[in-house]
Amino acid sequence: MTALASAAMASPAVAADAPVVVPLQGLEPLIPMDAPTVASGVPLPVPGGPTGFQKGRSGLPDVSLPRVPFTSTLPQTVLAAPLPEVVEGSEPGEALFTTPRSEMAATTPGAVVGNPVVTPRGDRLGLPDLAVPEVGVVTPALRGALGSQLGLAQPTA
Fold first, then answer.
1. Which pLDDT score, from 0 to 100, does residue 5 have?
2. Tens digit of pLDDT for each residue in 4-20?
3. Which of 19, 94, 106, 116 has its CA 20 to 30 A from that of 3?
4. CA dihedral defined by 22, 26, 29, 31, rounded to 10 degrees?
5. Residue 1: what pLDDT?
6. pLDDT tens, 41-51?
7. Residue 13: predicted pLDDT
8. Per-position b or e across 62-80, b if 16+ CB within 10 A of its CB
9. How would you write the chain as a 3-class SS string?
10. Measured on CA atoms in the order 141, 17, 100, 25, is the torsion positive or negative?
């Protein structure tokens, strides 16, 4: 049973997203052109196993609040706005801003508390010494690359 559970956790999960289309057709009576189109999605992050629990400087393990990694795929985003007709009878097309699907990885912040008991020394009959605990915060991290494109698209028939 434990082997099956660990195998299921080790297999990479496919990150999905929830599609979102912003309804802007209500703007058409207010602006002198067709409404822009905005289509994207909401990424659904997949949590991983916590990291941390490393051996401390004094030989004893540090007590820590581990960082939790999250992976997700940012969905493709398309923003298309029709260009106004400058010359009568012309079809200028539309301005197009797109971002492709891209992988993102993030980790939550963590905390480290140094152990207040240090290893014994010879001058105190083998008893451990007490030390002032050291407290630290492990910063969050975000990795990924987002390549956006801006251009003009020909009018569709």
1. 38
2. 333 334 444 454 677 88
3. 106
4. -30
5. 36
6. 888 888 887 76
7. 46
8. bebebbbbbbbbbbebebb
9. CHHHHHHHHHCCCCCCEEEEEECCHHHCCCCCCCCCEEEEEEECCEECCCECCCECCCCCECEEECECEEEEEECCEEEEEECCCCCCCCCCCEEEEEECCEEEEEECCEEEECCCEECCCHHHCCCCEECCCCEEEECCEEEECCCCEEEEECCCC
10. negative
Whole-number Å distance between alpha carbons of 125 and 123: 6
> Which residue carries 């956006």 as its tokens?
148
Task: Dump pLDDT digits (tens) for 65-92.
Answer: 788 888 888 888 888 888 877 677 777 7
Instruction: Give which of 72, 133, 59 is closest to 106, Cα–Cα.
Output: 72
Sign (positive or negative) of CA dihedral 115, 69, 44, 22: positive
Considering the chain, what is the average pLDDT of its residues?
Answer: 75
Burial 111-124 (b: 16+ CB within 10 A, else e): ebebbeebeeeeee
